Amino acid sequence: MRVRGRVDRNQPEIVRALRQIGASVQSLADVGQGCPDLLVAFRGKTLLMEVKDGLLPPSQKRLTEDEQIWHKTWQAPVLVVESVQDALKFVSSIS
Predict the structure, then answer these.
(1) C-alpha span between 75 and 82 (Å, rounded)
(2) What pLDDT shows up at residue 88?
(3) Is residue 82 within 8 Å of 52, Cβ to Cβ?
(4) Exposed e or buried b for every residue in 74-87, given b needs 16+ CB within 10 A?
(5) What would the DSSP string read from start to end of 11-50?
(6) CA-CA-CA-CA torsion for 18, 90, 70, 29, nearest 10 degrees?
(7) Are strands 79-81 and 45-51 parallel, antiparallel or unpaired?
(8) N or C, which terminus of the chain has less Cβ within 10 Å?
(9) What is the chain's alpha carbon radius of gyration, rounded to the nearest angstrom?
(10) What is the predicted pLDDT for the residue at 41?
(11) What does the pLDDT read at residue 95?
(12) Span 11-92: which CATH code?
């Protein structure tokens, strides 16, 4: 039984920034099995975000095998964000 998912170092600050602009944010980190880290709603749209730590070298921020499979089989986009700026850019582009 999965108890707690691993949360990237920058996830709390990304969640805070999204909430400050009025987004609803639900962490999905505990779901595991490749499921993205965040469920985000903003301006009537829902987004899935996979958080990676932008300060890590590329080899340490690759999608895991489970994440790759999940992203490929999900029938909607999953956004990979490495920073607050990435996350805000994505949600601000929603019309």
Answers:
(1) 22
(2) 96
(3) yes
(4) eeeebbbbbbbebb
(5) HHHHHHHHHHTT-EEEE-TTT-TT--SEEEEETTEEEEEE
(6) -10
(7) parallel
(8) N
(9) 13
(10) 96
(11) 61
(12) 3.40.1350.10
- CB atoms inside a 10 Å sphere around CB 44: 7
Q: How far apart are CA 18 and CA 45, in angstroms?
A: 14
Amino acid type, 21 = I
- Specify whether the CB–CB gap between 39 and 76 falls below 8 A: no
Q: Quote the CA–CA distance of 91 and 49 in Å, as a whole number.
A: 10
- pLDDT band with cut points at 50, 70 and 90 for residue 1: very low
